[in-house]
Design brief:
- By secondary structure, the protein is of the alpha/beta class.
- The two termini are 32 Å apart.
- The chain is built from ten helices and 15 strands.
- Helix 1 packs across helix 3 and helix 5 crosses helix 10.
- Helix 9 links the parallel strand 14 and strand 15.
- A seven-stranded parallel β-sheet has the order 6-5-4-9-12-14-15, with helices on both faces. A three-stranded antiparallel β-sheet has the order 1-3-2.
- This is DeoR family transcriptional regulator.
C-alpha cells in the first residue's frame, strides 16, 4: 500500500474514534508497526493529527464515535475483481421472487450489478445497496432503521423491536472481517449485535469473502462455521482453508476471477 493511501486510512481512522492504536492501524493498512509509527510521526509534523503514546488522535476528536474497521471508501478499492466475481456467483444462487437479506459491505455491494434484471424482495442495511437497486432495478427494497454510520454506509439498530424481526429471508448474504476455524469474525460489538439479528431471520447464510479474509482475525466472533450454508471466495483460497470448510460441512463455491473479468464465462464451483 502506498504512503498516500496509508495516510488517508490513518486520518479517516482517527476521525472515527478518540484514539487509534498502532496495532489497530497495522491491521487496517496491512503494514508493519515501524511503518505506521513513521506515518504517525509524519502526519504529526504536518499538523494533521496528534501523536500520543501507542497511537494517534485527531486534532479535533469526533463527538460521534463510529464503528471499528476500514471505511467503505477504502475497502471498495481492494480486491475489486475478486469481489465482482464472488458477487456474480452469489446472485446466481437466487431466483426471482426470493426474499433475501444483503448485509452492507463492499463485496455484497457488487451484487447490485447482477441484480439489475432480477425481481426479488431485498432487505438491506446499506444505503448504497438500497439506492442503487432503487435506481437501476425493479426489485422490492426494504431498508432497516437505526443509526447511520457514514464511514461504513450502513444503518444499525441496537433495539430488538425494529423492522428486522418482521422480514423472512430464504438467504442472507454477508461479508466478514475475517474467517477461521472458530467462524466469522467482526471488528465491532455493535456490528455483531445487529448482524446476529439479521442472521436469525434467514434460512441460509451465504458468506462472500475474498481469499485474503482467511488470513485475517478479530477478537469478536459473529457465528460458528456450522451456521454457514455456503462460502463464496476466489481461487486464492489455500487447501487447508478449503479442508477446514469441508470438515465443517460448509458448501464452497470458488469464483473464477480471470474468466469473469475477461471472458464473462461462468465461474467454477468446488
Amino acid at each position: 500500500m502506498h504512503e498516500k493511501e496509508r495516510h488517508r486510512i490513518i486520518l479517516s481512522a482517527v476521525q472515527e474514534k478518540p484514539v487509534v492504536t498502532v496495532p489497530e492501524l497495522v491491521d487496517l493498512t496491512d503494514s508493519s508497526e515501524a511503518t505506521i509509527r513513521r506515518d504517525i510521526a509524519a502526519l504529526h509534523v504536518q499538523k494533521k493529527l496528534r501523536r500520543v503514546r501507542g497511537g494517534a488522535e485527531a486534532l479535533h476528536p469526533p463527538q460521534f464515535v463510529g464503528l471499528a474497521g476500514r471505511p467503505f471508501t477504502v475497502n471498495e478499492t481492494l480486491n475489486t475483481r475478486q469481489k465482482q466475481a464472488i458477487a456474480k456467483e452469489a446472485v446466481a444462487l437466487c431466483e426471482d421472487g426470493d426474499p433475501i437479506i444483503i448485509n452492507g459491505g463492499t463485496t455484497t455491494f457488487q451484487m447490485v450489478h447482477f441484480l439489475t434484471n432480477r425481481r426479488m424482495q431485498v432487505f438491506t442495511n446499506s444505503f448504497n445497496i438500497a439506492e442503487h437497486l432503487l435506481k437501476h432495478s425493479k426489485n422490492t427494497i426494504m431498508l432497516s432503521g437505526g443509526t447511520i454510520y457514514r464511514e461504513q454506509n450502513i444503518v444499525l439498530s441496537p433495539f430488538d423491536n425494529d423492522v428486522t424481526r418482521n422480514f423472512y429471508a430464504r438467504r442472507m448474504f454477508m461479508g466478514a472481517q475475517g474467517l477461521g476455524p472458530l467462524g466469522l469474525m467482526e471488528a465491532d460489538p455493535l456490528l455483531i449485535q445487529a448482524e446476529q439479528k439479521l442472521i436469525d431471520q434467514a434460512d441460509e447464510l451465504v458468506v462472500l469473502v475474498d481469499s485474503t479474509k482467511f488470513k485475517k482475525r478479530s477478537s469478536l466472533i459473529l457465528c460458528g462455521l456450522k451456521r454457514i450454508a455456503t462460502i463464496i471466495t476466489d481461487s486464492g483460497i489455500e487447501d487447508r482453508d478449503a479442508a477446514m470448510l469441508e470438515e465443517a460441512g460448509v458448501n464452497l463455491i470458488v469464483a473464477n476471477v480471470q474468466a469473469d473479468a475477461k471472458t464473462g464465462n461462468a465461474p467454477s464451483s468446488a
